Amino acid sequence: MSRAQYEDRVRYQGDVWVRLDTLPRLLAEGWRRTLSAGGVVSVVRTPFQWAMGSPVIEIETGGYMGDVGLYVPEVQLPEALALLGDGEDGPPPA
Fold it and tell me: CB of 17 within 8 A of CB of 71?
């Protein structure tokens, strides 16, 4: 099974968004909760769509659970990296 490919920087809803990482959907949703708690907006990109909210029903019913791109607005990138940590458990620097 090949890993999904997502661009490092994209324009979404008129702003530049930066990919923090490509990771399995469940892990990405956990990182999104951490980011949200710290005031950082995030979005998940699947091969099919962008998801601003965590679609719990999709997760529970076995929707797309493969690799997704986790993005934050470029202006919030430093905050996102600080929240997730720069070490082993956090995303690589963008």
Answer: yes
